Amino acid sequence: FVTLPALPLTPNGKVVRKALPAPSPQDKPGSASSGGPAVLMNDAEQRVAHAWRELLGLSQVGLHDNFFDLGGHSLLLVRLQARLQREFAADLPLVELFQRTTVQAQAERLQRAIHRTDDAALHRARARADKVRRDSHA
Hints:
Layout: H1 43-56, H2 74-88, H3 94-99, H4 103-137
Helix pairs in contact: 1-2, 1-4
């Protein structure tokens, strides 16, 4: 947070975001204190962080940064949902993205969805193989 005596406003009373001062390096999202680059990310976390960086226009995103604190909003979250579903080939309800607002939480959810999908596909393949075996012995 940066303390200001007053916010820069337009004549209509709206905040002029470009006139706001930049936070100091230790306060920036993606810094080591927020679980940024100093924290190693697994493959799924890196892929989620990459999607966040592109959607939010940021150069760094930390493992524990909050999507909404970084400037995300509901419309960007819908775009993130579509991208992550394509990227991971997994179902990801929008409500879960509202509940899981960090890179780490979203990556964990996607990894569980992938494992469930893999388990279901394996189960279907075994069932087909069993059916073929039964049909060939009949």
